[in-house]
Amino acid sequence: MEAMDSQLAPPAVVFVHGMRTSSAIWREQLAHVRRLGHDATAVDLPAHGARREERFTMPRAFEVIDDAVAGFGPGRPVAVVGLSLGGYTSLAWAARGTPHTARLAGVIAAACTSDPKGKPVALYRDLAQGFVDAGGGVRAAISKVSDVVRGVPLPGRRPGRSSTSPGGADLRKVAVTPDQNAEPYRPGWHVVTDALTHLAGRSSLDALRRIDAPVWLVNGARDHMRLEERRHLRAARDASLVVLPGAGHDVNTDDPVSFNRVLTRALTSFSAAA
């Protein structure tokens, strides 16, 4: 009876943060989904937050998500929400086909529609590694890569153009308060090379083809890394694409109100499908 009750409960939610941030970025979203009646937790990836003493590896990141899923009890459906590095990690985790992923109700993958096997991510990795090896300014390297990426035309809608969710709801731009980006610990730049090295051998497109659950892809219109969002949309078995017009790469903090609306619609659709 307890297992059946667990299966009928709304999906629990695991939030996975981006590179050089921590679980702290999900405060607004944790509060939001809990108000909707979902159990939820936000994890710290290796080399971040409470796990700052660890080196980032993808197998260890998978263990962190596995532990979070197991923490909700046997049989409980789970949705995973990932941003950037957390999005790539969540897609790779969901594609593994393990007992933990068998409980997957859906994935919300934000700011992760440039395939890690492609040129932009490899360029970030190689430049960052070169500057680390030389003891130079990694910030300058990342800035140079950003300049390169900005020269590539964005697919689909232009930045700033009006956009709606799949259900037609208006997704409006709102101000972000200063403390929404505050966090107690920010990893050093060494984590960039570790994380991108582990991503480089994995294709998010291949992961999407293997995921047997609905996937929502969420991007900010001003994110210059959304180069392949249409390819990602086509690769998935069951996918939706949402572009928030006023947001950049950090879409959940750039426009938390609209991002939370997307969470509501996605989690509702996951529950209905289950």
Structural description of this entry:
- This protein has 274 residues and is α/β, with parallel strands linked by helices.
- The protein has a single domain, classed as Rossmann fold (3-Layer(aba) Sandwich), CATH 3.40.50.
- Helix content is 42%, strand content 12%.
- The protein has a 6-stranded parallel β-sheet, sandwiched between helices.
- The two termini are 18 Å apart.
Topology:
Blueprint: H1 2-8, E1 12-16, H2 27-35, E2 40-43, H3 58-70, E3 78-83, H4 85-94, E4 104-110, H5 119-133, H6 138-150, H7 190-200, H8 204-210, E5 215-220, H9 229-235, E6 239-244, H10 251-254, H11 256-273
Helix pairs in contact: 2-11, 4-8, 5-6, 5-7
Q: Give me the number of helical elements.
A: 11
How many DSSP-defined strands? 6
Q: CATH superfamily assignment?
A: Alpha/Beta hydrolase fold, catalytic domain
Please tell me the CATH architecture by its name: 3-Layer(aba) Sandwich
What distance lies between the first and last C-alpha atoms, to the nearest angstrom?
Answer: 18 Å
Query: What is the string of SSEs from the N terminus onward?
Result: HEHEHEHEHHHHEHEHH
Work out the oligomeric state of the chains in this entry. single chain
**CATH topology value:** Rossmann fold
CA-atom Rg in angstroms:
18 Å
Number of domains: 1
Mean pLDDT equals: 81
Main sheet properties? 6 strands, parallel
Spatial arrangement of strands, main beta sheet: 2-1-3-4-5-6
Query: What is the highest CATH level, the class?
Result: Alpha Beta
Region (Disordered): 153-172
GO molecular function, one term: hydrolase activity
Organism: Myceligenerans pegani
InterPro entries: AB_hydrolase_1, AB_hydrolase_fold, Carboxylesterase_BioH
